Amino acid sequence: MVLSGRSNRTPYNGTRRKLVLAFDVGTTYSGISYSILDPGQVPEIKGVTRFPANEQISGSSKIPTVIYYDKVGNVRAVGAEAMREGIHETASDEGWVKTEWFKLHIRPKSGTPSQASEKIPPLPPGKTVIQVLADFLWYLRTCAEAYIKGTYPNGRELWDLVEPEIDYVISHPNGWEGYQQSQIRKAVVQATLIPDTDQGHSRVSFVTEGEASLHFTIDNGFSAGAMQHGEGIIVVDAGGGTIDISAYSKKTETNAETGIDLFEEISIPQCHFHGSVFVSINAQLFLDEHLRDSDYHEDLDHIVRCFDKTTKIQFKGDDQPQYVRVMDFDL
Length: 331
What we know:
Helices cover 31% and strands 21% of the residues. The chain is of the alpha+beta class. It folds into two domains: 6-210, 2-Layer Sandwich (Nucleotidyltransferase, domain 5), CATH 3.30.420.40; 292-331, no CATH class.
């Protein structure tokens, strides 16, 4: 594996300008990175930091991985738009279906606790995981288009120049291989991001979240030079759906042409289905059992939402008590 940190990234050797879009479709949140490649220039990796209704999530560079569909299967709200004030009431009145955690429907079935698997929200009626993923990928692409057009002085001309041959990089959890990649590729085609041809398929590449995390670590503070030859690094990516663990060792030699440090995996990457959503699932199972014979059981969904928004994110250790709101008080 070649490590290309910010300090030793080499100039782009292509002959014409290109755009690379990288989509991180997470179980709970998603983001977009991009790089505009200019011949002879060292590439810079940047992030999309503006999305529709972004103020609903404090201007974060990530958006919720959520889609609302109406009764006939049309997309009505995506990402931060699905978090707008009053959207829950509108969805209820109009009969919209909320779709989340859909990425987990293409997960390897082994390794997922059976009780947790049963709690993964079903797909909307009449929709396949490929169709839902395609809708979300298309939305991410439109967000990237709007951001680039609005950020650069010649944004519209730039987009028109690079749009026909955009390269896409899509991350996925460790251990997702042939089947999962084929499902994602089908979704990319269905989203019309690429044509269904060999040339079109060549514009899509995949990276494990472990590899992406290693590159990000080197690019943002961890110096490859601080590691001696033969020493290693363990990268833990605790995400919404999975916890990915990867281990890499710095090789004694470097790339002969570029002088870039080389790393290699020193153990099989691990992927555990114990991410944030499974914490919530287990909390729901626990509360369901303990509140079953109480008057609070009918408010279980509300209690779990309170756990998600407060208790879960405040937890720091087992030596400090945390509380879960079980009812609202009118003061």
